[in-house]
Amino acid sequence: MSLAAEAFVSQIAAAEPWPENAILYQPLREDQILLSDCASSLAVQAYLRMLGLPVRVQCRANAEYMSPSGKVPFIHVGNQVVSELGPIVQFTRAKGHSLSDGLDDVQRAEMKAYMELVNNMLLTAELYIQWCDENTAAEITRPRYSSPYSWPLNHILAYQKQWEVRRKMSAIGWAGKTLEQVYEDVSQCCQALSQRLGTQPFFFNKQPTELDALVFGHLFTILTTRLTTDELSEKIKSYSNLLSFCRRIEQTYFESQDRDSQLGASDYSKGPSLM
Amino acid sequence: MAAPIELFCWKGSWGLPSVDTDSLIVLAYARFAGTPLKVHKISNPWRSPTGSLPALKTKEDGSFSQPSKIIIQLRKQKYNADYDLSAKEGADALAFISLLEEKLMPALIYALWVDPKNYAEVTRRWYAENISFPLNFFLPSRMQGQQLERVRLMWGNSTLEAGEEAEKELYADALECMNLLSQRLGSNRFFFGDSPSSLDAYVFGHLAPLLKIRLPSSRLQQQLKALDNLTKFCSNILSLYFPDESQEGRSQPTSRVQEGSDFDHEPYKRHKQLLSVLVAVAAMLGYALLSGIVAIEHVKEERSTGNSSIEPPDEEEA
Predict the structure, then answer these.
(1) ipTM value of the model?
(2) What is the number of CB-based contacts under 8 A between chain A and chain B?
(3) Cβ–Cβ of B154/A168 closer than 8 Å?
(4) Do B172 and A2 touch (CB under 8 A)?
(5) Which of A161, A275, A162, A273 is CA-nearest to residue A225?
(6) Average confidence (pLDDT) over A192-198
(7) Does residue B283 belong to any structural domain of this protein?
């Protein structure tokens, strides 16, 4: 989102309250969505649930092409369309909903830094495993990514996307890494998160922040998604406080809220459960 | 103990031990950890054992190029600047390094390699002057291509061009990152108390070039200079850990600039002269050939097998 658009959005956004009919778009849950997109989408859902803002999840095969930034998920609120967690956090803050107002300057700096840690290491590792590990790419990623399209478009789009991700990996110096090194990085990242969390219920003590939503989105998705091997989820399972952190957020913000509002399975968008 | 570790990195200028962020990170980390290194400050990446700079050459494990790998390798050799950090501080260091790489790095690349004025007047000029003769014609532009590609892919925007909008977005992120760093640093000398860690090396590597290199369009620099504790942090590290460089930078700037301005045009002049002579010679030869003043005849040498008789001499003269 450009700066001019941002300023415009925040001006308009402040005027209007959060509507009841906000919609979050993501790719098809059963056949199409990939680990990394699913994680980002879950992070946004967790964030909005933490704020208590209602949003309906819609699955569209072309969600990626509907999004203004080309990345999923994106939300459609009133007249505005906002994609990805960072801009969505700014957008909700402009409307007067924020999770991180109670933090002091140093804590806010640390929160931002840990969010970049998740983006820099976990998200990149997810992309690497999806597209650069040939087994996973051939068995899971390419078939799923291209499932809505017919031949020959399915092959063209899948290989185009794979080529794009691989170029990105070589630009940031990940192309030379082996799968073991990537697992090692994930492990290092989880260890850092685990150390930071310690025995607290959330990363900054009692109140959840957008960092909690982001970490939950990624860890929960990795834990509940089956890949060719379960090495990735095993890395997380060795940190018990991260596991109970995921369970806590799942229970507090997904299960109890769903039970309360009797929404049932149709809006229960998170997929499988940890229990 | 003999230290068989060798480090290859870009050479310095503007009072910096090296002009390149990655090289600066590694150099600073090695100084913080007290590693005995044989440092080769060079300006030809093809001379490095890995083909890129910086590179660490060890006897046992071969060579490494990325700063993170080099730091891991130094740690394996028991040179660890993060030894005193608690587990939580180690986690914080990792998080802030990610913040630097995601938010500040693209803006830094933009300021040095994409901004047309800075690239033409400072970056390309420095690399073209310092890289040796045939390479200096294409290496700077190839490096620019790589850096531009990196920013584009990190930004997820394949059409990023130098311009107002890209600059605003990248610099807004960078400014936020620098503010966060400044808040985290507070009035401390280093990020985790009194001794420097890997995070200090990364912050130094990213900020010192912005502080020291004089850029014609300097919006990002001015924003950094407004954050007093960060500028103090960098000059502190320069004077404490790189005393020779900072003195050099202080005592020689005038002579260097003069030397630079005389020297700069000299090789270009010679190249241009050489090039124009070559073009002229080629044109004259071409004309001579086309108009038939000089003709090239293909004289076929007849080679006969066995003991054939020597041909009569008059046939050759005909």
Answers:
(1) 0.84
(2) 79
(3) yes
(4) no
(5) A273
(6) 91
(7) no
